[in-house]
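Q: Start with the shorter request: fold the first protein.
A: Done. Sequence, then structure:
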Amino acid sequence: MPFFSYVGRNAGGEQVKGVLESADSGAAAGQLFSSGIIPVDIQPAKAPAKTEDPVGGLFKEKVQHIDVMMFSRQMNTLLRAGIPMMSALGGLQASTPSKAFSEVVRHLRESLDSGRELSASMREHPEVFNGFYTSMVRVGESTGMLESVFLRLFHHMEFEKFMREQIKAALRYPTFVIAVMVIAVIIINIFVIPAFAKVFKGFNAELPFLTRVLITVSDFFVAYWPMMLIAVFVAVFGFRSWIRTPEGRYKWDAFILKLPIAGKIVHKATMARFARGFSLAAKSGVPIVQGMTLVAQTVDNDFVAEKVEQMRSGVERGETILRTAVNSGVFNPMVLQMIAVGEEAGMLDEMMQEIADMYQQEVEYEIKTLGSQIEPILIVLLGFVVLVLALGVFLPIWDLGKVALHK
């Protein structure tokens, strides 16, 4: 949309100037009147220039998830108490401990003072307020329930934070154990097996096959460990670059869901975020089709997001939500039954809330029992590694003992 520069008078009679984005000059005047500014002159203008960080934002402080979450809670409290929007933002700008977020709030105040709506101002900071957040604020502005929307957004972000922490906890234990085992194998191959290899060479006898394999692998580690280290760094960098691409991210998210134990937890947490987001959008009066588009942005998994988009396309074609949910293949039979009941009774938002609570409880249970589920697998894996190393190291010594007894 085009931009317009304006000169006007606020409620106190003071002259204000600014630039706003609108469809035409008439719509710009309407925005100014709605924000309490009487326009005196409106002229077409260029888009305001954005300041660039000379170092590309490398050392710039970033806004954290908790900053936006607490902002939502505080905005609900201040607006519910009857404090004007500009005063509320001014207080939050002065009180927030994050300098980066304080700068964002300052920009919101300046944008509001120039006649723009809060949701439009937030869209200029997509790295802070995602599409779901700004769309919900837009709904709150149009329905006059902005303080309620901020409260729901706070609870939604609190829930998302909890789910992310649960997923990290689910992946932390197996990742740590596997990393320790890999480090132990590397140390054994570089330092322990070479020492035994020197002893075995003094036997002047043919070594068992398993021992020869271990010595060959150890020699490879000793000779090429710098190149292997470089290869690991290149692989990590390449992997991180790959998952930043749409195709790579989609395949990686689909792979995570297929992992034996952690994948089940990630899937349930993702579906809990979907159900909670859908319930929030429905309770706020967002149409189902638009709500699904918004919810696809909150699931934090590209594979599931595509399934949600397929559900949206099915609803647009006139299919029921139950049918699209069945075709997606990501819901279990109990959840499908709850969706059917909610759709038939006209209580889909409440049923989605119950589905989110149910998934949340299952995730909490899975996290608590994660140790008992994964310990047998790790014990078997560790036992196999120890067995191979023990047989490879001690078989030659055992053979030497038998030869000495026969003599």
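Q: Next, the second protein, separately.
A: Sequence, then structure:
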Amino acid sequence: MVLKPKFLLQDEPTSRLDGSVKVRVVELLRKLQDKYGLTYLFISHDLAVVRALSDHVMVMRRGEVVEQGSAEQIFHYPQQEYTRELIAAAYDLELAEAV
């Protein structure tokens, strides 16, 4: 943050972290975003983290954008079958991890 960037590219910044550490990292990223007015390009397979940090979401499949829109639109009203399948799979995994 010393150079005061306005844009940060983050590629899987929370992968391989356990749940409690992941929550703290997401909270830190939000605080930094608010404090410094940062824009993040956030690449992740973890839809819970994407949902927590994103205003705008782009869903890609095989290097092609299949759907994009506000986070609310993508997570609540997905238009593409692939997007619906990703969200359903992520939800199933969250339930399996809780058991």
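Q: Describe the second briefly.
A: The CA atoms of residues 80 and 93 lie 20 Å apart. The helical segments are 19-36, 47-53, 71-76, 81-98.
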